[in-house]
Every structure is written in C-alpha cells, then in structure tokens.
Design brief:
alpha/beta; five-stranded parallel β-sheet; 10 helices; 17 strands; binds flavin-adenine dinucleotide; Rossmann-like_a/b/a_fold; flavoprotein
Length: 333
Amino acid sequence: SFSAGAPAQISSLVVVEHRNGALTGSTLSAIAAAARLGGPVSALVGGEGVGGVADSAARVEGVDKVLVADSPLLRHQQPEPYAELLASLAAAAAFTHVLAPGGTFGKNLLPRAAALAGAQPAADVVEIVDADTFVRPIYAGNALATVRFTAPGPRFLTARPTSFKPAAAARAGAPAAVEAAPAGALAAMAAAPAAAEWVAESGRDGGARPELGAAKVIIAGGRALKSKENFALLERLADLLGGAVAASRAAVDAGYVPNDLQVGQTGKVVAPELYVALGISGAIQHVAGIKDSKCIVAVNTDAEAPIFQLADYGLVQDLFTALPELEQEIAKL
Ligand code: FAD
C-alpha cells in the first residue's frame, strides 16, 4: 500500500461489475488495485434489484463502504446513464480515484465518465507507482508507458484484471456499510443522452466454465479448427481440465465461435496457469493477450510457426491427432 507516502485525503471509488447476481473476478482485481492506493475504498453497485450484489460487495476484503444505485435506468447497465452517475458521484463525494475493471464493461463506461468530468482516463493500468503515476501497456503490449497525472481532479482508471491479484471475496471481519448513492447523483442520470436503446443481450452465459480473465486453464483454438463443430472438441478438453475455451481472431472472424472468446490485442487479455494453443500461428496481436500466461503449450503442424518462440512446450503435430491423444491421457489422471 502507498498509504504511508500518499496524501491523506485519498479516497477511491470502484465500479462493481456483476453478472447473474455475482461480482466478477475482474471487479475483485479492481478493488485490489484501489486498495493499493491507500485511503478508503468505496464500491459502487449499479443496477435494478441489486441488494444481493451490494451485500456481496460489502464482504470483499478492502471495501470500506458500498454505495448502491438502484434504478430502472441502470437495469441494463447501459454506459450513458451510468457515466452521468459516476461523474456526478466523483465530483460530489470528492473521490480522488475512480476505477473500473478493464473489461468490456469498464472500458465502455469509464472513458465516458472521465469525459463528462473533463478528465483524461488511463486505460488498462497494470501497475500503480503512486497516487498520480501509473504504468500501462502501449503498442499491443510491446512497450510499457509510465504516465503521470498533472491536472487536478479525480483520476479515472481501468485496471487490467490479470495484473492485480483479486481481493478476497469473503473477508473475516464485519461487512462494510451499505448505503444508497446520493439522490443528486441518481438524478444526474436523467441528463444522459437517449442516444442508444437497449434491445437485447445475446451470447454465452459462460455456463459452468470460468470467465476468461480469471481462468486457470485455457484451451484456445485458431483458424486450423476449420469449423464450429470442431471447436466442440476443445470444449471436451476444457471440461476435463476445468478450463475455459478461447479463440484467435481468425477463428472468431470465420464464425467458429462468438467474439467474446477472442484473446489478444483486440480481445481479452488472459494470464492462466496453462494456455494451450491449438492451430494458432502466434501473430503478435494474439500474443499480446497471452504472454503473461505461466505455461504455454502449442500444437501446430508448422515447426516455423511464431507461437513456438513463446511456447514452453511445443508439439509439431496435427491438432486433430494430438487432441484425442491428449484427452485420453488426461482422462487417465
Ligand atoms: P493463422 O495465422 O491462419 O494460423 C493458423 C495456424 O494453424 C498456422 O500456424 C498453421 O500452421 C496451423 N495449422 C493448420 N492446420 C493445422 C492442424 N491440422 N494442426 C495444427 N496446426 C495447424 N488476432 C488475435 O488472435 N487476437 C486479436 O486480438 C487480434 N487483434 C488484431 C488487431 C489488429 C489491428 C490486427 C491487424 C490483427 C489482429 N489479429 C488478432 C489477427 C492476427 O494478426 C492474426 O491474423 C490471427 O491471430 C491469426 O489467427 P490464427 O493463428 O488462428 O490463424
């Protein structure tokens, strides 16, 4: 923690991302990042009928207060009203830092709130140097930039989930206080432009599989899988290992899997214990999303494929031969 050297008035607000009534793992990482700043950490739970989520947030290690914005305007967590709420809260409650998890939700919301507050956000923070100084990757993760905020006002940040060890979801002590967000901040949402209308949400629910950002094991497939049906082969291996399934952009573009499974520069950044890349060439944009993985196993028919430069274990073989063999061996364990 930087509490020793940091100004005493640090006070941060973390936007809670939740799905099916539960906090996401990346929210726990954002809370851990906020705790590193020192000073009290408030968690903002927005939505409709989110009392249960608020109670869960109150039990997370490091949370000092939970603010609840229960409003029909936030039923679908749309960023337009949410950004108004956030900007208003940051101003009214004098938060020095406003953080969101660096996934689709946070990256959609936080820059809007920063713009409303007249502030420049820092996206994808991987390290907190001090209360004003942050490290973030640039050029698809090929370089790290250290940026320092010099203007007054709250610092708006998204925290890269894989860079901060998640805060414990259930702490030992008493839960934090839960209170309603100030009425003024809720009223600010009325100013949101009616520029977008919520139509429907579709896609995978994740089912029993872990979310990609938090998965310990990821089985990823590329263009070489050739079809949606073949991707199901990966799911069997993922199930055996309790892992998640991911894909390269080529596989997503070909329609084999939905794009929320894409890993890389324009997809998700992951850092599992084990990343198995099947029929993935290892383009720099893909590697940008996986290079923090502890152990990378690659199966590719081309011994010259760039993925082998990164892999801890490489197998030059047809994946359709390797996959069933791998599955058989693992099933024996
Ligand atoms: P390919 O490059 O076609 O590789 C397929 C591999 O499978 C080859 O190495 C081949 O030898 C091997 N193979 C073929 N048959 C078999 C078999 N039977 N068994 C085993 N191996 C086999 N890509 C991403 O993944 N994520 C991103 O976020 C991303 N963002 C991008 C952003 C930008 C701005 C740009 C320009 C590109 C981005 N890309 C991204 C695309 C990236 O450049 C590559 O095109 C893509 O990663 C290639 O996917 P692939 O490895 O599945 O396909």
